[in-house]
Amino acid sequence: MNTALEAFAMVATTEVAIAILASAVYGMVIGALPGLTATMATALLVPVTFYLSPIAAMATIITSSAMAIFSGDIPGALMRIPGTPASAAYTDEAYAMTRKGQAETALGAALWFSAIGGIVGTVALMILAPALAEVALSFSTYEYFWLSFLGLMCATLVARSSPIKAIAAALLGLLVACVGIENPGGVPRFTFGSTDLLGGIEPLPALVGVFAVSEIMRAMTSPLPPPIPNRKLGSILGGQWALTRRYQKQMWRGNVIGVLIGALPGAGADMAAWVAYASSKRFSKEREKFGTGHPEGLVESGAANNSALAGGWVPALLFGIPGDTITAIAIGVLYMKGLNPGPTLFTEKASSMYALYIVFILANVLMIPLGIAMIRLSRHVLRAPRAAAMPLILLLCAVGAFAIGNNPFAVVLVAAFGVLGYLMERNGYPVAALVLGIVMGTMVEQNLVSSLIKSDGEVLPFFERPVSSVLAALTITALLWPAGVWVLRRLQPAHAAR
Amino acid sequence: MHLSDRITGGFLVLLGALAFWGGSRLPGVPGQDVGPAVFPMVIGSGLVLCGALIALGIGRSFEAPEPDDTDATPGLAGRLGRFAPVAALVPPALLIFYVLAADRLGFLLTAAVMVLAAALALGASWRLAVGLALLAPPAVHLVFYRLLRVPLPEGLLAAPWA
Amino acid sequence: MAIITRRGALAAGALTTIARPTLAQPRYPARPVQVIVPWGAGGGTDATARIVASLLEKEMGQPFNVVNRTGGSGVVGHSAIASAAPDGHTIGMITVEICMMHWQGLTELKRTSYTPLALMNEDPPGVQVNASSPYRDIKALADAIKASRPGQFKASGTGQGGIWHLALAGWLGAMGLAADHVRWVPSNGAAPAMQDLAAGGVDIVTCSVPEARAIIEAGRARSLAIMAPARNPQFAAVPTLNETLGINYSVGAWRGIAAPLNLPAPIAQALTAALQKVWNGQEFKDFMNARGFGMVWGDAAGFAQHMERTDTTLGAAMRSAGLVRG
After folding, report:
1. Alpha-carbon distance A240 to A119, whole Å?
2. In a domain, B55, yes or no
3. How far is A300 from A114, CA to CA, in rounded Å?
């Protein structure tokens, strides 16, 4: 009990309060700008943390990253520009809701279930950290290979198109991920002598290109869309309670998926959102509504990506293994502040740990009022005429891409992916699958090749370990699914007439 | 620009074949049997297979039909008539313009040109387009340069806060 | 510098141009200095550069702004430093990769493309094994490696041809074994490699001790030795290779501050002097100790020599590992 009181005393200082508030607003704004991510928001805070007390320093990182992950959904829902690869899974769904005049329901759901996901994730972190860490640490490259492959297979479930085209798009993404020197041989691959391509193609410029730029390209050649029904903006949280009750099962499933995948280093919020969206579609009773502006998938994946964020801290705090890029930065700050990651953090520095838990909860609670304010503010974007909004978005795409590494080449990539995304969409290839391929490419290849090297080229070890055999079975089922459906449809021609 | 499945599928077959060929030419790693060549070759084969299936029209029944645009498009595309699809290339062209011109002209001028051209191409009135071109670049510069410390090029015209 | 005043045209008045004096500067630094970092924000190099920049700012009275120029696996940022104007207003943090990339034929840039200012840090590789591994000390491990068939032992730590791979190759070479006697399993950095070590996927990880520290402190791995001339006071229990095996082999991942070639000597001397004060200051020491980063100092000449030595050592290691191209 004493440690809990101590922890409260550590949080209840003016410094921590200011740190939480300021970084909340900061994270909220950065996340909402297209092209700027939660990772960037966190990285820019590091010099500030030099001058803060340990708890305040960690509070800035925890708060700003949670806010930025949520507010990354805002441009996704309003303008079809996902703020992070994590929101790319359900961007089309949220945007479809906006087109139906339900922007506030879509964003409200993102906000409400993000906050719930964050809190559930924190509770899981408090209770299950050692057990989760044990699971995470037993994952070798074999398990990771199947897991990443499974994540990749979500592309076929998520897309509203021919599964073959979805697989083709994902393969194209994997091919893009092959570019560069970060491959098992450490040799330049498909770089065509370009220095800029040596480092490979990062997901972010591709994301901005295929979603945002291709949307602007479409606007250039399409008639003005019918104006969005401008009813009085309803209560943002009003409908959420009903959604929570209706999709309670989906919400919990999303939370569990998020915590589990988040706790696995390297998988993180991106994959959690994809897997959750795919699982909600797969098990839904109203599968045909997915992609047309249906909140069910948003509930599950919105909860998943924020609970994954909390889950990502498990290996970070216990073993100093970063779960994602944000915790990688946070680990550096932990060391600098004398809160060295390790099991001793939970015993010797227990009060600091409890203080961090309190900060997690506070950040997720604070997310709701701030998020409402941000949604109300940003909803004005919808009222701007298209000819005014699109040029601004184009400018933000250019600056945002440049800001990733202060390298103009990223802007060239954005343009190239814009053209690619435009052509793909026009011809029925899902761009989200392409993004998933790019995000997962390195992980799939690295773990495949590392496993093959370790097994001296044998395939058997891929199926021998208990966890890997389960994951392998799941993956093969997902792989054969489209073929099975296709055969079934062939056998029942009456069904094919929609 | 709508292309037939035969064309996109054929393109994927070609791309897959190229990836396979390019992958197979990669140097191996001394002391290791599995090198950088494996993955591109696997993906290349997959692309060839998928491309062939698509070109043969398999899986077509899953697709939602693409809505056809029949209404008149405002702005550049409306004026281009038969060549309307070319207007779609304006945004990527402006991004390339940004890359080529930003260092010489500076961020403010380049961004202004970009916003002006995009707004006009989308059918904005001159008043709206010029207003945007004057106001948006300084605002974006202020946020990115001052708050986020992004080193935007100064070029011919520096912002007072730079 | 051409200056166009458009105040008339920009009636909104939101903009005013300011004229920048371009006369010869009597005192350096006359305006903010850009510190280019070839690696992404949030990593160890970035954190080191940021603390150095903030301390230089105090020392020299002008802002030192850290700019991450990523891309091309470090090539883009390194070449941005080399190709900047040598007026002291653009400097950068260069890393050990500058002594590796040219051997692989990735770039023309090498150590001689810069004016070295100061070496700030070096982390030697360690030899880590799983906590349940039968090898209690480095001698037992070395004997077991010598007795094993080629490829039986698996090691990891970074990508193929990365600094920790070369450390392993060099160590094996020093023991008279082939560079690929222990098979290298490429990984996406030290953290996943340490995780795989803990999960029982690989036998050895040769990353630096600070990178392995959390898993070691969690009791999942042991560090048997470091490949350095002397023990690290932060991890005093870990012996050097020389102490135990009598192998005098040392490499390390280092970071230093450099400027474009042909930087005027007075500016270079001013910067080196300021960097020395930073390095000796308590704040820098506290930071480096907290992160567990090794503190190694070299002035301009010392840094140049250090780079030359690294270049030779790594060149030999890369040749033996078959990584040299062109």
Report:
1. 16
2. yes
3. 10
* Interval C248-263: pLDDT, tens: 888 899 999 999 999 9
The mean pLDDT value for C283-300 works out to 90
pLDDT band (50, 70, 90) for residue C20 = very low
In terms of Cβ atoms closer than 10 Å to its own Cβ (0-12, 13-18, 19+), residue C277 is middle
Question: Tens digit of pLDDT for each residue in A142-165?
Answer: 988 998 888 888 877 776 778 889
Q: Encode pLDDT of C230-239 as tens digits.
A: 888 888 899 9
Residue C125 bridge partners (DSSP):
C208
Q: What architecture does CATH give domain C33-122+252-320?
A: 3-Layer(aba) Sandwich (3.40)
CB A186 within 8 A of CB C159: yes
Question: Does residue B25 sit within a domain?
Answer: yes
C315: which 2 tokens?
């060149």
Residue A224: its chain B contacts at CB < 8 A? 74
| A456 vs C202, residue with greater confidence | C202
Q: Are A393 and A129 in contact (CB under 8 A)?
A: no
State chain A's mean pLDDT as an integer: 84
Total of domains in chain B: 2
Residue C181 forms contact with A (CB below 8 Å)? no
Q: Choosing among A152, A187, A395, which should be mutated to test the B contact, i.e. which has the most B CBs within 10 A?
A: A395
Instruction: Classify residue A211 by its DSSP letter.
Output: I
pLDDT digits (tens, 9 = 90+) for A322-355: 777 788 788 888 887 888 887 778 877 888 888 9
Q: Residue C297: in which H helix or E strand, if any?
A: strand C295-298
The pLDDT of residue B62: 63
| Whole-number Å distance between alpha carbons of B103 and C268 | 28
Contacts of A345 (CB under 8 A, 6+ apart): A317, A318, A339, A352, A353
Phi, psi of A292 (to 5 degrees): -105, 10
Q: Is A336 on the interface with C (CB under 8 A)?
A: yes
The pair of three-digit structure tokens given for residue C65, joined into one six-digit string: 């702004």
Query: Per the CB < 8 Å rule, is C159 touching A197?
Result: no
Q: What is the pLDDT of residues A105-136, one digit of tens each?
A: 888 898 999 999 999 999 998 888 888 878 87
- Chain CA centroid to CA C307, Å: 11
- Chain A, 81 to 140: residues with Cβ < 8 Å from chain B are none
The Cα–Cα gap between A68 and A79 comes to: 17
Q: Inform me whether the pLDDT recorded for A62 exceeds 60.
A: yes
Residues A353 and A14 sit within 8 Å (Cβ to Cβ): no
Q: For residue C159, which residues of chain A lie inside 8 Å, CB to CB?
A: 182-184, 186
What are the domain boundaries of chain A?
Answer: 2-225+235-492
Q: Which of B107, B152, B155 is nearest to C1 (CA)?
A: B155
d(CA B151, CA C34): 9
A343 CB neighbour count, 10 Å cutoff: 18
Judge if B55 and B89 occupy the same domain: no
All residues of chain B having their beta carbon less than 8 Å from the beta carbon of residue A197 are none
pLDDT tens for B72-110 read 677 787 777 777 788 899 999 999 999 999 999 999 999
| CATH architecture for segment(s) C126-245 | 3-Layer(aba) Sandwich (3.40)
Q: Cβ neighbours of residue B102 under 8 Å, at least 6 residues apart?
A: A408, B110, B152, B153, B155
Beta carbons of B32 and C183 less than 8 Å apart: yes
Q: Are strands C64-68 and C154-156 parallel, antiparallel or unpaired?
A: unpaired
pLDDT (tens digit, 9 = 90+) per residue, A225-241? Answer: 766 655 555 677 777 88
- Angle of CA points A292, A295, A298, to nearest 5°: 105
* Parts of chain C belonging to CATH 3.40.190.10: 126-245
Mean pLDDT of the residues in chain C: 86
On chain C, the residues whose CB falls within 8 A of the CB of B31 are: 150-151, 178-180, 183-184, 322
Interface predicted TM-score (ipTM) of this complex, two decimals: 0.92
